[in-house]
Write a structure and sequence with these properties.
37% helix; alpha/beta; 347 residues; 6-stranded mixed sheet; 4-stranded parallel sheet
């Protein structure tokens, strides 16, 4: 390569070093300063790029992955896309077991990246043979030369964020953050980042965002798995109907639950007020912060860092679809949303 051409060797070198962006409008009236860690600046448009590259390169280093092998994973979509992207660059096959709750946009993106996709029913127990956990495990057993990433129970999920995301946040804030907020799905992002930050300053408060219909908040408070907490919900990549080993509950100070409807409208509000076109889970993260602010969680000198995990393009058929919002009962008819978004049709 010519020395005067400044180019990356491949797209994977763009992973990480995502920016912090101050939220100037949407949190007006609440005490404190609020900053978004915008993970959609990763090349695969989500925080999952970090764990995909880290776990695959660790498997290569240990000799577990060899050229031509197959990567298999359970995913709500983002990890799958990141794994498919890394597989393209590194020359692996990729097979993904995806929840039927994942948006059509995500599934189309996975296919476009060359992955083979198995869409599994969302609202079945984790140990049901049709669940995306069990389908991925079965595929791994059947396919010779396959590696199952298993992000929910893989310590490397935490390690990736401990090694990279935590130090980034600490450096970007010069250690001045007081609160770190992230949604909890597999738990890797919040756990790894929190471990690093609390080693630097044990007084930093770590706040996890959970979904109604998920078991995580109650498990954190009681250390008991309560099946009665489980019921269907719409937000992707947030909450769980099992307890992931990739969640370190000891480094999380508090959980806040959010609803499907509030999170959807908050995602749309982010676009209008901050120009940040982000995903459903980003809306959930900010909705949780707003609720915590109303509860008096933050003070005037608080510096709150919020992880916004992915991009809005993956939710065009969901939270950014007027028809979908109406179908979910979030508004009475699509014209209600259209008026809010100032949509006018010229005839």
């Amino acid at each position: 390569m010519r020395e005067d051409i400044k180019a990356y060797n491949n797209i994977l070198e763009l992973i990480g070093d995502t920016p912090l962006v101050k939220l100037n409008n949407i949190m007006k009236g609440f005490p404190g300063n609020y900053y978004a860690k915008v993970e959609s600046f990763n090349p695969g448009h989500s925080s999952k790029d970090r764990i995909a590259l880290f776990i695959i390169e660790e498997a290569e280093r240990k000799g577990i992955l060899k050229p031509g092998d197959t990567i298999i994973e359970t995913t709500s979509g983002n990890t799958g896309f990141s794994l498919a992207m890394v597989s393209v660059v590194k020359g692996y096959n990729c097979i993904l077991a995806v929840s039927s709750k994942s948006s059509k946009d995500k599934i189309s993106m996975l296919k476009s990246m060359g992955a083979k996709v198995y869409v599994c029913p969302a609202h079945v127990p984790a140990d049901d043979p049709r669940s995306y956990y069990e389908v991925a495990k079965q595929l791994h057993k059947e396919i010779e030369g396959s590696v199952y990433i298993n992000q929910y129970f893989n310590q490397l999920n935490i390690d990736a964020h401990y090694k990279y995301t935590g130090p980034e946040v600490w450096k970007q804030t010069n250690g001045k953050l007081t609160h770190f907020v992230a949604c909890c799905g597999t738990g890797g992002t919040i756990s790894g980042t929190a471990r690093y930050l609390k080693e630097k300053n044990k007084d930093i408060k770590v706040l996890g965002i959970d979904a109604y219909g998920s078991v995580l908040k109650k498990y954190h408070e009681t250390r008991e798995f309560d099946e009665k907490e489980i019921y269907p919900y719409r937000i992707e990549g947030l909450g769980k109907n099992l307890i992931p080993k990739a969640t370190d509950f000891d480094v999380i100070d508090k959980f806040e639950k959010v609803s499907d409807e509030d999170s959807a409208f908050t995602a749309r509000e982010l676009v209008k007020q901050e120009g940040l076109f982000l995903g459903y889970t980003s809306g959930a993260a900010l909705q949780g912060v707003k609720q915590l602010a109303m509860q008096g969680e933050f003070e005037e000198d608080s510096n709150v860092i919020i992880v916004f995990p992915d991009h809005g393009s993956r939710y065009m058929s969901k939270v950014y679809s007027d028809e979908w919002m109406t179908e979910q009962g979030f508004c009475e008819d699509s014209s209600e949303v259209e008026d809010e978004l100032q949509v006018q049709y010229v005839k």
